[in-house]
Each structure stands twice: as structure tokens, then as C-alpha cells.
Amino acid sequence: MAKRARSDSLALSSVSSVSLLPRIFEELPLEILLHVFSFLPIKVAAQNCTQGSKFRNCKQFNRKFIFGRELAMRRNRESVAKLVDHLFDTHKGDLIDSFQLHIDPVEIEELLDKWLRICVEKKIQDLELYFLRPGYTLTEDFLNQLKNLSSLKLVHCEFELPLKLQSLTNLRSLILWHVPLRNERLQTLIVRCRMLQTIDLLHCAELSRVEIYAAEHRYFKMLRIAGCNNLSMVEVVSPTLRCVHYCGHVPSTITFQAPQLSEALFNFVPAGNRRYLRASVLEKLVCDI
Q1: Tell me, what's the pLDDT at 271?
Q2: Other beta carbons less than 10 A from residue 22's beta carbon
Q3: Quick check: helix, strand or coil at residue 107?
Q4: 187: Cβ–Cβ under 8 A, 6 or more apart, which residues?
Q5: For the residues of 52-83, what is the DSSP string, one character each?
Q6: Shortest CA distance to 211 belongs to which of 240, 178, 189?
Q7: Low-confidence ranges of the chain (pLDDT < 70)
Q8: CA distance 68 to 63
Q9: How far is residue 149's CA from residue 116's CA, in Å, rounded to a whole number?
């Protein structure tokens, strides 16, 4: 009962704080008000914009276009696409920091092209495209324009990588799930993106080798690989790597040269009909690490 009372009290306190926000903001000059609202998630900004005439146009300057799983579960695709399109069409700010979209991309490819083109014009920094099934491809031209991007997450999304990649120099987080990623594309991204801190690869079926030679990457800290069942080699050379998480079959070659490695989690799945891993394989792996 005491826990419930405390939680109810906190909830009431939170509601009171939210309800007081518009009163506090009413005292601010419009320029400062627009700047404050530009950093709120679009949902929060839209809710507050309806509470007074001074807030009515604040969402038009919002920088965080977050349309995640919750929205996709509550609305159908056509409704979500209409909402996103309206907000892009009415946006008046110079910047969009984040664009997160959870949607089925099939039959809305032209809208996606339009939204991403606006994101490039407004110097997008964080991009997450969580597609429910394959059907959309990021073009070479689009990727080459991502000069300010620091975080990229793609789910069920193909991409064309230019031979001479001219962007992504500021990329810190690379997350690729269910992406048909080939070895040379991953290698190009690693070589080009020297600010990388995190690489997260999940169910990238075409990947047969992960070779990360990151001697000149000063910030690389985290590597996650799971469900990439065609991997035959994992070789990592990094003076800064601290954490490795791996889940899948045992590659024939797995080597780490990482003097600062402090956490290594391996969840091995036997290949084929075997129920157990050979002891010699595990002994070799432990020696290599």
C-alpha cells in the first residue's frame, strides 16, 4: 500500500508539473518559446500546442520527428503516413535533429523519398527507419548527403553504398537489423566512419566475414553481433574496444586484439543437428581471445 501511495503521489506530481508548463512558458518571449519547443518530441510538442494560442505554431519548429512503434500500433499505415506528411509539409524550422519512423514502407516509397529529402535539407543527425518488411532502398545519392548524421538505425531497409563514400564522417552509432549487408559494404563503412562508438548487427544473412581493423578509431567501444548465421570469420583489432556481445554459430576463425576488452558475452548456437559444441572448438576460442 505504501508503494502504491508513493507511486500515486509521483503520478499526481508529474501531472501537475505538466499542467503548469504552459503557464510558465507564457511568460517567455516567443523566440525563446519556439526554441524550447523545438527540442521536444513531436508528440509532446503537439499536445502542448493545443493548450493556448501562443503555443499553436510551436510544433512547426520541432526538431524531433519521432513516430515509433506505439503510434504504428494505434493507427493504420495510411493514417500514420498522412500525419507524418502533414508535419513535414508544415514544418518551418531550419533543422530536424531526429527522424524515427516505424512503418510498412510498401506503396509509400514516394512519400519516404520526400521526407528523407527534407531531412537532408534540414541537416538530420539521428535517423531510424524501422520497416516492418523489406521494400525500400536508400540510394547512393541520399547516403552521400548525410554530412551531419551521428546515428543510423536501419531495419528491413536496403541501402546502396557509393564506391567513394563522401559522408558519414560523424557517424557514432551504426545499427543494421535484417539488412542484406555484404562484406565489402561493412568494410567501407568501418574504414570511412572513424568516429564510430557502436556497431550492432542482427540477422544480416549475407554477411560471411566481420573484419574490423580499427587501430585509428579512438572511440570504438561496443560490438554486437547476433543471428548472422553465415559468418565464417570474426576478426577485430581495436585498442579501445571494451564490450563484445555475440550470439550465433561458432565461426571457423574468431580473433580479438583488444587490450581494453572488459566484457565479452558469447552465446553459441550449435550448427546443424548437433546439440553440443566440440570442446576443442571452445578451447581454441578461449585461447584466441
Answers
A1: 73
A2: 14
A3: coil
A4: 211
A5: -GGGTTGGGG--EEEE-HHHHHHS-HHHHHHH
A6: 189
A7: 1-59, 272-275, 288
A8: 15
A9: 13
